[in-house]
């Protein structure tokens, strides 16, 4: 069997494509994606959009926690109009396996919502309850369609793109295309990114038992390319012109830390970023964030997307409240009531607004006094 599997993969490239996407793995099972409130997202609306004929994708839109009370019982039209409120928007592109309702993904939506963001996420064609066959081209087109849908409703509000794991490949494909048509996002965030799919497949835990097998590239990596799957982050960043933030945990067992660092080094020296901020934020092994728990950090990058000067005076209030929020969740456990959850999220969002006012006043003082 050990010898037969490489030949089977070589003869049937579709097998390798399935292993890259893992869209047939739906975890957690038995959740109703039409009901995000069942996952504790009571300020979230489920939509369905149609990027192409015969393709339908399921979308979740979570409003900022400050709008939680107003959002209760509202229909899709209200949520769409809410995108025009004075809050930034994050388009979140998830990784392989699971759905938009995955546990760690839901927790990230809650954190970003508590920090004052709209969060729009979706399942690519072939994932979750979305209809269609998965492909790199199709995933990128789905993301482009949702981005354009957001921009048509969000006015002048900032729109950021956040990709995780395989979603970083979709994200750089999308942002490269947006930059080429001169409509870049306000920033790009890559969480646990790789350089390209061949290097990631070679480093993936699944490949350990065959990594030193004679002809490994020919048997296992070439079929990925044959299937039209590249996710070339290392090439895409050379054509991206917007602020870039890379987040990576040192103990990531799925996408090795060195691939994220290598991608940062490529981006940092690219001429396309000469007028934009490029930042790499590592998370120490002791934190235990691994591949999908960076959302637990009390220092998520709300402040890092602003200018360097503003970033110096932001984060002190909301970081403390985020720590309080996480502590309360641990103490209260899963039995905590909705009211407490949303009270803490709302408090964090309100202090975020206070923090913004403080930053403005402090910077204004600094400018007038000549200290900055």
UniProtKB/TrEMBL annotation:
Membrane disposition: Single-pass membrane protein
Recorded coiled-coil stretches: none
Keywords: Endoplasmic reticulum, Glycoprotein, Hydrolase, Lipid metabolism, Membrane, Transmembrane, Transmembrane helix
Gene Ontology MF, one: monoacylglycerol lipase activity
GO cellular component: endoplasmic reticulum membrane
EC nos: 3.1.1.23
Group of enzyme by EC: hydrolase
Domain AB hydrolase-1 stretches: 88-193
GO biological process per UniProt: monoacylglycerol catabolic process; phosphatidylserine catabolic process
SUPFAM superfamilies tied to this protein: alpha/beta-Hydrolases (SSF53474)
Similarity comment text for this entry: Belongs to the serine esterase family.
PANTHER family xrefs: ALPHA/BETA HYDROLASE DOMAIN-CONTAINING PROTEIN, LYSOPHOSPHATIDYLSERINE LIPASE ABHD12
Function: Lysophosphatidylserine (LPS) lipase that mediates the hydrolysis of lysophosphatidylserine, a class of signaling lipids that regulates immunological and neurological processes. Represents a major lysophosphatidylserine lipase in the brain, thereby playing a key role in the central nervous system. Also able to hydrolyze oxidized phosphatidylserine; oxidized phosphatidylserine is produced in response to severe inflammatory stress and constitutes a proapoptotic 'eat me' signal.
Name the UniProt record assigns to this protein: Lysophosphatidylserine lipase ABHD12
């Amino acid at each position: 069997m050990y010898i037969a599997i490489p030949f089977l993969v070589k003869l049937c490239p579709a097998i390798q494509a399935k292993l890259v996407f893992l869209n047939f793995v739906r975890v957690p099972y038995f959740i109703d994606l039409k009901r995000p409130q069942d996952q504790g997202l009571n300020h979230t609306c489920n939509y369905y959009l149609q990027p192409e004929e015969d393709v339908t994708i399921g979308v979740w839109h979570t409003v900022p926690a400050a709008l939680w009370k107003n959002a209760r019982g509202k229909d899709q039209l209200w949520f769409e109009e809410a995108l025009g409120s004075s809050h930034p928007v994050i388009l979140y592109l998830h990784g392989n396996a699971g759905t938009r309702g995955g546990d760690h993904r839901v927790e990230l939506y809650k954190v970003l919502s508590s920090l004052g963001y709209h969060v729009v996420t979706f399942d690519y064609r072939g994932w979750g309850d979305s209809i269609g066959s998965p492909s790199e081209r199709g995933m990128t087109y789905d993301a482009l369609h949702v981005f354009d849908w957001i921009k048509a409703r969000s006015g002048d509000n900032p729109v950021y793109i956040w990709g995780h794991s395989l979603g970083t490949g979709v994200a750089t494909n999308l942002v490269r295309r947006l930059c080429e048509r001169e409509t870049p996002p306000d920033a790009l965030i890559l969480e646990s990114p790789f350089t390209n799919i061949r290097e990631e497949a070679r480093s993936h835990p699944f490949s350990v038992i065959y990594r030193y097998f004679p002809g490994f590239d020919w048997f296992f990596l070439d079929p990925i390319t044959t299937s039209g799957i590249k996710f070339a982050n290392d090439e895409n960043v050379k054509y991206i012109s917007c602020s870039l933030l890379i987040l990576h945990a040192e103990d990531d067992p799925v996408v090795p830390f060195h691939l994220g660092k290598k991608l940062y080094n490529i981006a940092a020296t690219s001429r396309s970023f000469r007028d934009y901020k490029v930042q790499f934020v590592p998370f120490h092994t002791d934190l235990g964030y691994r591949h999908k728990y960076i959302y637990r950090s009390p220092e998520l990058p709300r402040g890092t997307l602003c200018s360097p000067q503003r970033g110096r005076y932001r984060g002190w209030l909301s970081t403390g409240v985020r720590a309080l929020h996480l502590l309360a969740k641990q103490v209260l456990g899963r039995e905590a009531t909705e009211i407490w959850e949303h009270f803490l999220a709302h408090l964090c969002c309100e202090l975020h607004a206070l923090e913004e006012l403080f930053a403005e006043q402090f910077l204004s003082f600094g400018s007038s006094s000549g200290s900055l």
